[in-house]
């Protein structure tokens, strides 16, 4: 099966390529993605944003198109950054700037209140019709400082308690096994295989 991924995020693209490689899926980037007007992620939920993106970008390809919306949910901050994770420190902020903003907001929060959850919702559409939506999540705790060199986004401060390491301290293979994105993608492959 050929699957087109609609994303310009290099970290996501790398992870999807690795996940697809393990499954035998022929995953490719949406041609000329950077020249297409960007979909406005204005919905209040990950699922609505993922489905909207998949539907929109499927109008630019004849194959199945995969899109996702993902982010970090911190209960102590009322669920923030949530669907605004990529824009948390402003529209042009770097990963490092977003992480440091979050650490500043969490500086007086200790113990169990540093719990967080990574969420990923994937959607597949074909020619304007959403065919499936799946989700995955990973429970963790926010560290007080950056740890590790791998990954992207909030990975250096998202600790998996059962493993004692942040996402950024895991190998790519380990992260794909435990991550919210890996879980959502494997669920999607199961749905597509049953079609």
Could you please describe the fold and organization of this structure?
By secondary structure, this protein is an alpha/beta fold. The chain has one domain: Maf protein. It is built from five helices and seven strands, in the order βαβαβαββββαα. It has helices spanning about 10-25, 45-55, 95-105, 170-180, 180-195; strands at about 1-5, 25-30, 65-75, 115-125, 130-140, 160, 165. Strands 2-1-3-4-5-6-7 form a seven-stranded mixed sheet. Helix 4 packs across helix 5.
Features:
195 residues, alpha/beta, Maf protein, 25% strand, globular
Concise summary:
The protein has a single domain, classed as Maf protein, CATH 3.90.950. It contains 5 helices and 7 strands, in the order βαβαβαββββαα.
| CATH fold-level label | Maf protein
Number of strands: 7
CATH C-level label: Alpha Beta
| C-alpha Rg (nearest Å) | 16 Å
* Helix amount: 25-40%
Count of discrete domains: 1
Break the fold down into its secondary structure elements and pairings:
Blueprint: E1 2-5, H1 10-23, E2 26-29, H2 46-57, E3 64-73, H3 95-105, E4 115-126, E5 129-142, E6 158-160, E7 165-166, H4 172-178, H5 180-193
Parallel strand pairs: 1-2, 1-3
Antiparallel strand pairs: 3-4, 4-5, 5-6, 6-7
């Amino acid at each position: 099966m050929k699957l087109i991924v609609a994303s310009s995020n290099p970290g996501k693209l790398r992870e999807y390529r690795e996940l697809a490689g393990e499954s035998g899926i022929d995953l490719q980037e949406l041609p000329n993605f950077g020249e297409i007007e960007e979909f406005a992620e204005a919905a209040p939920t990950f699922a609505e944003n993922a489905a909207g993106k998949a539907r929109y970008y499927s109008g630019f390809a004849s194959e199945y198109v995969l899109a996702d919306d993902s982010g970090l949910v911190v209960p102590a901050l009322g669920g923030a950054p949530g669907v605004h994770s990529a824009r948390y420190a402003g529209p042009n902020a770097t990963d490092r700037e977003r992480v440091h903003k979050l650490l500043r907001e969490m500086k007086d929060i200790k113990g169990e209140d540093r719990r967080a959850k990574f969420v990923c919702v994937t959607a597949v559409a074909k020619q304007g019709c959403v065919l499936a939506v799946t989700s995955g999540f990973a429970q963790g705790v926010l560290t007080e400082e950056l740890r590790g060199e791998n990954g992207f986004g909030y990975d250096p401060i998202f600790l998996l308690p059962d493993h004692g390491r942040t996402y950024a301290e895991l190998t790519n293979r380990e992260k794909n096994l435990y991550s919210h994105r890996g879980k959502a993608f494997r669920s999607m492959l199961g749905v597509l295989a049953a079609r």
